[in-house]
Amino acid sequence: MHAGLLNINKPCGMTSRRVVDIVARLAGTKRVGHAGTLDPLASGVLVVCLGWATRLVRFVQDRPKVYSARFLLGRRSDTDDVTGEVVATSNALAPPKALVEELLQTFIGTIQQVPPQFSAVHLDGVRAHKIARQGKAVRLEPRPVEIHRIALVDYAYPELDVDIECGSGTYVRSIGRDLGNALGCGAVMSALVRRSIGEFTLDSAATPESLGQRAISDLLLPPLCAVSRLPRFVCPPSDRDELVRGRPLAFAAAADWANGLPVAIVDSDENLLALAEYDASRQLLQPRQVFVA
Question: Are residues 74 and 166 located together in one domain of the fold?
């Protein structure tokens, strides 16, 4: 099986791990990983990397993500969504739409967010959700996350639909929880769809069921898709041996190339050969990850 990426539409009710297991079985390899976990409650884009492309997972994870989320106002839960122990808020009043729209805008930008206690965040080397399931208190510190855009799509109390574009590490459940607290009525997430991760969109995603009907090789995207945002350097055939040995390549870059800039090194057919770091002082590309032998 060649290295590459699959854009999968994970269905609601299936774990991200299950999708990886399906791909691994069909592809006949254990070298499979995904970029950005989706909880079983959520559906949508899950990018799965195969072969040496698993070394590129972090580049996909770092891309902006777009979600459509539904929250139910007037209740709270220990998981911040409907999969947990949901409790109705006493004497909750339906907030006016204008107030909802006003408070949504306060989440835009770099904000401090406390992850849900039932999450994959590590606490002293242990996943927070494992501690929470033991009935122990989980105290997670707030951390900065980036919200690029948040917009009200529909509101008919208690249901609230929003679209969110955010950076890596953002918990949409936490946005709903914090919004509900600000409104004074509480809120839990009842549905979530990830519509895109960078250039990987729901429109072009394959379902897990379709993987058995079509060869994975027909759906496999080239590894270069994971680093499509990086500047590229076309390696001359005469320099390929040097590259394979991890030796720096001479390159006088454009004036706007900063020192330490990550660069994708490709061949003339745009196959990804390596990732390098630009050394501005010496005008060299220093390979950091080489994918060819």
Answer: yes
